[in-house]
Amino acid sequence: MTTYPATATTTARDTGGFTARLRRAEAWMDDKGRGAWIAAMVLGFVFFWPAGLALVAYMTVTNRWSKQMFRSSCAARKSRHWAMHAASRPSGNTAFDAYKADTLRRLEDEQEAFEAFLQRLREAKDKSEFDSFMDDRAKGNRAANEDSPRGEY
How far is CA 50 from CA 35, 37, 53, 64, in A? Predict the structure, then answer.
């Protein structure tokens, strides 16, 4: 097996090729915020409309329209995940752990009961809508039968 020493023969991709420049521009615009993206889009439409259209598509696909994209949402998600993980760990105090387990079980039971209530509520609403539909249909059929001439053919 032949190994080659690292030499100065790097490709254009390594030294700042087109994609590297695009990535740097994207990072710079992310640092500047949503206004920079919108300004670039408007300038794209002014100078060369396909570039503006491409920026609109890119902003839509990568969700650059939302304000949350420019916040530290990853950090917030990680802290929420950590807090949920920390809540499930035992604290070492057996009385508190028993209280926490009992409270979590009670909350889960209440959640299940509430979801069952919502399901019954949906079913009752669906049944009343269906009964109303059937009553309207029956009234329509009765009216159509009363209006039709009864004669011999």
Answer: 20, 15, 5, 18
Query: What's the rounded Cα separation, in Å, for the pair 131 and 89?
Result: 51
DSSP assignment of 83-98: HHHHHHS--S-HHHHH
Q: What is the pTM of this model?
A: 0.36
**Rounded to whole angstroms, what are the CA distances from 15 to 7, 9, 25?**
13, 10, 15
Distance between CA atoms of residues 29 and 27, nearest Å: 5
pLDDT at 149 over 90: no
Secondary structure element (H or E) that encloses residue 48, with its range: none
Q: Which amino acid is at 1?
A: M
d(CA 96, CA 108): 18
In whole angstroms, give the CA distance from residue 62 to residue 22: 15
Rounded-to-integer distance, Cα 114 and Cα 31, Å: 44
Q: Quick check: 16 and 22 in contact, CB under 8 A? A: no
Please give the full DSSP string across 31-55, using - where no structure is assigned.
HH-HHHHHHHHHHHHHH-HHHHHHH
> Phi and psi at residue 45, in whole multiples of 5°?
-65, -35
**Model confidence over 127-137: pLDDT tens digits?**
999 999 999 99
